[in-house]
Specification:
The chain is an alpha/beta fold and 260 residues long. It has 2 domains: 136 residues, Rossmann fold (3-Layer(aba) Sandwich); 115 residues, Rossmann fold. The chain has 11 helices and 13 strands. The strands form 4 sheets. It has a 4-stranded parallel beta sheet with strand order 2-1-5-6. α1 packs parallel to α3 and α5 packs antiparallel against α6.
Length: 260
């Protein structure tokens, strides 16, 4: 019953606003919308949306992939965009209120181009979206690569030890940046592995965003650790968010892979 009053109060605001208002529940989509010049369309964001800095001024209307129906309805939003739906019941509730709910995947680099086109159309920024797509394609084509690329292990989490398989944009990113993802032989997304498996693969480079290897980690026996090729300085949001800064992550990886 508590939602019925909100429906009555805000239903007209949702449909009568001169400018279509958007709530974004995914940080990567928030960054894309800002890149395209659509920050004025924001009326709500997830608590995880923290970049660029100006979006912090936008009211929070949910968490990552999960809308707060009361906050969304109060915001006057016409559309909710998210990369994942973690609250189907809340989604159904908002759709019943007439709010459009768009799920825009973020699993591959092709999904980034699709997201640009979808949001470009939504915002009336088709030209800007296509320009970003072409700019990224040119940038990826310029990266230095080797016929014998360095082998790379990405540590998504240390416990349990999780990495990225072939069916992820992180795998594509490593390969396009000139590396060889040792977990890319697996037609999977994110999955757990044993430290012993990583030690057996003996990667040249280990990526551990923002987290140094524990002193007693078995991974200190890898070639990467023995030669000091453990990348910990990379901002996790660069690597884990499929958005406008993905190309910056690729550039940093490429420089690290091939630095003397």
């Amino acid at each position: 019953m508590k939602y019925l009053l909100l429906f009555a109060i805000f239903f007209s605001a949702v449909h009568c606003s001169a400018v279509e208002k958007i709530v974004s529940l995914s940080p990567n989509l928030t960054e894309i919308i800002c890149l395209l010049g659509g920050i004025d369309a924001f009326c709500g964001r997830s608590s995880a949306c923290d970049f660029p800095e100006e979006v912090r001024k936008v009211p929070v209307a949910g968490s990552f992939g999960k809308a707060n129906p009361e906050a969304v309805l109060a915001s006057g939003a016409a559309t909710v965009v998210t990369a994942t739906d973690r609250a189907p019941q809340e989604r159904a509730l908002l759709e019943q209120a007439g709010i459009r709910y768009l799920i825009i995947p973020a699993k591959s680099l092709a999904d980034y181009e699709s997201a640009l086109r979808t949001l470009g159309k939504l915002l009336g920024k088709n030209r800007e979206a296509e320009a970003e797509i072409q700019k990224n394609r040119r940038a990826f084509a310029r990266f230095h690569k080797s016929e014998n690329p360095p082998s790379v292990f990405v540590m998504i989490s240390p416990s349990p030890l999780c990495t990225a398989g072939r069916r992820t944009f992180i795998h594509e990113l490593i390969e396009l940046a000139g590396g060889h993802n040792i977990a890319g032989t697996e037609e999977r997304e994110y999955f757990t592995v044993s430290p012993e498996w990583v030690l057996q693969q003996n990667p040249d480079i280990l990526i551990s965003c923002g987290a140094p290897l524990p002193p007693d980690s078995i991974l200190r026996g890898t070639k990467a650790a023995q030669t000091g090729k453990v990348l910990t300085e990379l901002d996790p949001s660069l690597l884990y968010r499929l958005g406008p800064r993905t190309i910056e992550a690729a550039r940093k990886l490429n420089e690290y892979f091939y630095r003397p």
